[in-house]
Amino acid sequence: MTPVLGSISLSLALGISAVSILLFSLFLKSEDYRFYLAGWRAALSVSVLSILATFFLLNELLISNFDIKYVAHYTSLETPTFYKITALWAGQSGSLLFWLFILSVYSLIVLAQYKNSFTKLMPWVSIVLVAVQSFFLILVNFVENPFSPTDADFVVVNGNGLNPLLQNLTMAIHPPTLYLGYVGFTVPFAFAIAALVTKDTGSLWVRSIRRWTLIAWLFQSGGIILGGWWAYQELGWGGYWAWDPVENASFMPWLTGTAFLHSIIIQEKKGMLKTWNMILILLTFTLCIFGTFLTRSGVMSSVHSFAVSNLGPVFLGFIAILLVVCTFLIIIRFPILKSEKQIESFTSRESGFLFNNVIFCVICFAVFWGTIFPVLSEAIRGEKITVGAPFFNQVNVPIGLMLLFLTGVGPLLVWRRTSKEAFIKNFTIPVLTGLVIFVFCFSMGLRNATLISFPLCGFVTMAILIEFQRGIKSRVTRFNESFLGALKMLISKNRSRYGGYIVHLGIMFMFIGFSGNAFDSETEFAIKTGETKEFGGYNFELVNIQPIERPNHIAWIAGLNVWNFHHELVTTLFPEKRVYFYKDPNPDKRQPHSELDIYSTLNKDIYSIFSGVDMEQQIAYLKIMINPLVWWVWFGGYVLIFGTMISLWPAKDSE
Question: Are both 562 and 586 inside the same structural domain?
């Protein structure tokens, strides 16, 4: 009965979405508030029904109703309850419904929060939100219905179970976080379309969606970082970013969204870059849909992607509609998008923001081109030309270093024009700091990108610290506050500015971690119990191999002592070799998996992978990696999230 209710909910939601759009259209034509109120209620109904359908599917996953194809594919009787919940977004149709679920929650909040606000914009905002919901409702009703019955002429007594790679806490959190970012950009997109249609392209729509954009950007950033953490912890290749097509798909809207967040500051303060802002937010949402297309169409091979399906043409059609509509609106509204003022100086803060935007867009284009080139080459020449990590690194590392430099330059520039005296005063200490670090790195034998990245990190750090120091000094002098009191009040009085500086510090810390990739080393060896192998300044001793049986897999755990050259025990690692569904009589359904173990410090990680086992001979086949500075990537991610939270934190009325 519940699957029927789920299907009915989705069908009703699709029908009511058409009614809602019609009612809002009648309101715009007649200005009869009754039509607006009816359309608003219909829009609420669409969201509520979509949310109900999601809970219906979740219920079927929890009770293991294998009569539903989706449940049979992604859960089993042995699957732990927690991972039955995460199976909601593990497959094609479930993830699309989950996309719709998050959009419905966002829509409910927007409709309730702004019911009687932004009266000129809200009808169009509501139409856009419902239209996007309608697209996903079409998908889950006619293309990938999550309530489709199992196609079998026998009773299914057990399901396939969840992919072992997805039975991981980080992977349980990563997709919802990333979806909250992807879907969150729908709200500023809707306001941007409304502003273009109504010709209200001033700073009102920007102020109305700044917080929404920050929320979406926060989740997008967190999702990308969690994805890197999952790859590092679970996939066993020793890295966290491989320029995989689906990784790139999440990175591209992050780049344009970041550029937009910088750019709207200029529009709010100076009335500039209106066209930039419109293009950036429209492009960001379009890239979110493009990323969803890449993940689900099967046109590209990726560890993150779903199976090949017939979703591709539908998504491409929607993307084409978005591009046509957005381009048309930009062209016809171009005269009213012209800036009220012009950038006065190359050395102004405005120009710094503009250069930032250009760099973000250049990186985005490079990533986009490298991602779609294999598909284009296959379509045109019949031969797929693979574009791997070397291409992306060669193109993006120099551009990324330039972006890192601008991260430090921005705070040192002054609005309108930076005088020669101010330029020298502001840049002297940061530049000297960078030069000192450069000389030190050169003397240590560092070359290539690392010889530039570490000095730039020093330059950026000093530039930001000087900004904090000036603000604190001013408050101590004016209000006789303590250092900590002045710091607290400085941030609370201007959360956006200083929260942004903290985000920049987080980016700088992450660049330190990225630079450590240049010093990675690895080895593979077979080792018997009681033997010791030497690598990377450590001795690795295999103490034992312990078999253990768990509810949904069997594991062999290697006890690996790690000693330094002073014969001091550094740590004991416990990598595992697992086999999921090991009781299945069909050997093809048994899934081997390596669960690695990592010892992490500020300066390096010792990364161990248990790739094979011979219990008769008590031999373990291990891969060991020494990865310097990876800790700084995750620390920088925490700082970035913390800085964004400060920017988002509402100010007190008294402030």
Answer: yes
